[in-house]
Amino acid sequence: GFMTRYERKLFDDLKSPHLKYWVPFVWFGNLASKARKEGRIRDSVDLQTLMNEMNKYRSWCSLLFGYDWVGIPLVYTQVVTLAVYTFFFACLIGRQFLDTDQGYQGHDLDIYIPVFTLLQFFFYAGWLKV
């Protein structure tokens, strides 16, 4: 509903190795200039304001295109995975409860199920997989 059938055919027939998000912006600029010449836009300041807003929106689209163009290197995911598992292992050891008043020989690790540490790990690992 944003384009006529003729405009859609022109858009589809345009050959470009990249995305064609910029084509409607060129059309808009040409139509706005034509409207200024025909007197539908009465003041050049209004035309300038329209063009500035259009250019701002176009730059946001190109920024989004840039984010899509550059992928996240595999090293980042490997580093985050290693950090999550290392954090979990450190928490598993570090959050053990030792009662020093009991006089344990060598202060060995207590054997219990660290529920909140496991819950935290499940959240982090799930977030990592997303």
TrEMBL record:
Pfam families: Bestrophin. It comes from the Eukaryota. It is a multi-pass membrane protein. It is found in: Cell membrane; Membrane. Forms chloride channels. This is Bestrophin homolog. One of its GO terms (cellular component) is chloride channel complex. The chain crosses the membrane at residues 82-98, 110-127. It catalyses: chloride(in) = chloride(out). Belongs to the anion channel-forming bestrophin (TC 1.A.46) family. Calcium-sensitive chloride channel subfamily. It comes from Sakesphorus luctuosus. Its main location: membrane. Keywords: Cell membrane, Chloride, Chloride channel, Ion channel, Ion transport, Membrane, Transmembrane, Transmembrane helix, Transport. GO terms for molecular function: chloride channel activity. InterPro entries: Bestrophin (IPR000615), Bestrophin-like (IPR021134).
